[in-house]
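Appendix B. Raw example, untouched.
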Amino acid sequence: MSKLSISHSSPDDGFVCDLRAALADHGQAGWIDSRELRGGDLLWPEIQKAIEEASGFAVVISTDALQSKWVGKELKLALKLQKKRDKDEFPVIPLSLNGTKLGILEEFFGDEPLYIPVSNDAGGVEAAMNAVLIAMGKRKAADVPANSRASGGTRPRTHGFEISRAGRRRPKPDLSMSPPIPASPTFTASRVGG
């Protein structure tokens, strides 16, 4: 079985645990330091070994990750391995958490890579799984229905319910019976910033 090494900042550990579980649901293993290392382990040699033994590398780009020297160090090693192997044999996959851009880490890639947008909102990990599996080479883009490609993955079916930020199902409001909102003569729309 292949293993995806996942680099992230500690504050993003909850999202990464969800990502690892979703990968396992799809028959793929994920390696994250917070779940594999124990007190007394030598940090860099263990992380380096895990990246070198992995079949691919994902980096979770978040505002916290942009401040982490570890994320940068791990990404440099992964890109070095990718040059030695091949992009198809060792994909390096940037996951943009909640719209965060690569920032300074973009310089490590040379050219701006294609991000996979991910979200820590309810259903966010599963919505990106098709795109992640395609990037890993575990699924072909042709295997994914066209309507699920635009969002990077499939949307969970809610059957008349919506999912709250806390992950609870609640009935979708029926807006068809709502009275129209009256126009206010004092309200005008304008764009912020030009």
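End of appendix B.
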